[in-house]
Specification:
This protein is α/β, with parallel strands linked by helices. The chain is 49% helix and 14% strand. It has ten helices and eight strands. β4, α6 and β5 form a beta-alpha-beta unit. α5 runs parallel beside α10 and α8 packs across α9. It starts with 6 loop residues before the first strand and ends with a helix. The mean pLDDT is 96.
Length: 211
Amino acid sequence: MLEKPDSLIFDMDGTLWDAVDSYVMSWNEGVKLENIERIFTRADLDHVMGWERGKVLPYMFPDETTEEQEQIYETINQCRAKIIPKHGGVLYEGVRDGIINLASKYKLFIVSNCPKGLIVEFMKWANLQDYFVDEMAHGINSMPKSHNIRLLMEKHNLQSPVYIGDTNGDSRDSRVANIPFALVTYGFGTSDDFDLKFDDFTSLTNYFLDL
């Protein structure tokens, strides 16, 4: 039995929503503006979901210099900033009601390996900004999730948070941050190392509301 948490820290992509179709549009518009003849598919983006930028860019653009990779990524993110408010993504079933109910009992946060500003765009699109205390994106400081989890813990004096995500990377970073990890199985990845496991967001919500 888990110690009763005082806060829940969520991963975003694969945990709260699926916006890969919008991301694909962003990547394809971005590389077109950069005069790169390549078309990205959903499978391409699915494969790298949850990766940090420093791993994604060499994988996607192995023939480009680091400086060129960063320029391409900046253009992609400019496209994404325009596309997300219009096209958004798909909230997983139960997320909206779950977040609203959980916020009545816990402090809620988001830590993601996404670009700067994307978590805020997600919250605005989903109209959930009133239910999260704070957020931290990899794009702000280029640091791993474990570091950014600890930043929020220190900033908000969190004593017993739980990190909730969908990948083995999420599990690994939770261990480095020395907090429990709850795995959701409906996202983009999987892990064999978790403290709790949920097959849907409603089950997750009910579990933490009942603690």
